[in-house]
Amino acid sequence: MNFLDRKKRAAAAAKAAGVNALLVTHLPDVRYLCGFTGSNAALVLAGGRAVLFTDGRYTAQAKAEARGTRVVIAKKPALTAACEWLEAAKVRRCGFDAEHTTVAALDGMRKAVSGKLRRGMFQPTKPLIAAMREVKDADEIARIRKAAALGCRLFDGMLEFLEPGMTEMAVAAELEHRARLAGAEAMSFETIVASGMRSSMPHGHATMTKLPKQGFVTLDFGVVLAGYMSDMTRTVHLGKARAGEREVYDAVLEAQEAAVARVAPGVVTAEIDEAARSILRRAKLARYFSHSTGHGVGLEIHEGPRLAAKQTQKLEEGMVITIEPGVYMPGRFGVRIEDMVLVTSKGGEVLTPSVKAWIEL
User: Which of 3, 106, 184, 241 is spaced 20 to 30 A from 26 at the CA atom?
Assistant: First the structure.
């Protein structure tokens, strides 16, 4: 990871935004800029210097992890110490991420500096570091590949485990247990296992509901390896399909593959969304597709860009996105298929190549 280059680019982004320093408190952004993984941090970039403020719990960890960054173990709240340092360094316009700074935090930042600075010192900016994180470098892509590959292996193994009568909770527990044994640091998010009529719930977290003898089971999950996340969804069928179920599945698969095929640098993200939605519209299922088509993935499970109607951002080489259309018919069933896709100079490379064809167990 080239942390020096990242800090230089962050400083340039701050200058372009009209500030001469940045106060970074969103933990994934802190990790991106210096490598620190602790739960309490404020990182200051000012005048070519990088200073990380944290507390005594992280004395050894911060010094081991924070690259090219001075570490200050604060005896007061890290954010307060960072603000006091900024004042002492004679910084007069410091940018902060308005999307990840609470009103209470901003109030504390202002109270930490002298009265004459409270009005104009802290300037809200767009999420500058989050925008940098959208395009992954080679090291990040390698980590994401490994996380995605582990997700695929887990799904393939679960096909032999699923049986009617076991609870959704048991399925989630087994999947997460296998993930941990395989080296996952954590799950990317709460594992979704939704079966039978519950498969019509896009975020149907696992319950004690038993898998049906005849019906869909949706598995949506991801793992974390070396800080980077994976995300994939597959929907399988237990028993023989009822009328209309196979047709809906095939329509979702066609929509998903059409969207994947549209991926390329320079393509507007709304066009990816429309590529999927148009297939479902033709199948008269578009009204059952109730969310956007995808999002970026990296240090967080939901990053930019967003793939949805009316979005004007263009894809860039190095972005890692999800493509996940679905159809959700309340009281009946639902189907979602999701892949992670790397934007390359030649188009989209699927990082989660587990089988997507109809599976009947």
Answer: 184
Cβ–Cβ under 8 Å, residues 218 and 238: no
Q: Are residues 157 and 255 in the same domain?
A: yes
Range of 37's domain? Answer: 3-132
119 band by pLDDT with thresholds 50, 70 and 90: confident
- Say what the pLDDT of residue 3 is: 95
Show the 3-state SS of 78-142.
Answer: HHHHHHHHHHHCCCCCEEEECCCCCHHHHHHHHHCCCHHHCCCCEEEECCHHHHHHCECCHHHHH
Give per-residue pLDDT as tens, 154-209.
999 999 999 999 999 999 999 999 999 999 999 999 999 999 999 999 999 999 99
Considering the domain architecture, whether residues 62 and 181 belong to the same structural domain is answered as: no
pTM of the model: 0.94
**What is the DSSP track for 4-20?**
HHHHHHHHHHHHHTT-S
Other CB atoms within 10 A of residue 137 CB: 12
Neighbours of 40 (CB within 10 A): 18
Q: What pLDDT sits at residue 116?
A: 82
Q: With 90 as the cut, is the pLDDT of residue 117 above it?
A: no
97 and 24 in one domain? yes
Domain boundary among 132, 148, 169: 132
Residues whose CB falls within 8 Å of the CB of residue 119, separated by 6 or more in sequence, listed in order? none
In DSSP notation, 299-338 reads SSSSEEEEE-TT--PBP-TTBEEEE--EEEETTTEEEE-B
Residue 294 contacts residue 342 (beta carbons within 8 Å): no
Are 114 and 148 members of one domain?
A: no
Residue 332 identity: R
Of 107, 132, 157, which closes a domain?
Answer: 132
Contact 240, 214 (CB under 8 A): yes
| Four-CA torsion 117, 123, 129, 131, nearest 10 degrees | 180
The two structure tokens encoding residue 185: 């640091």
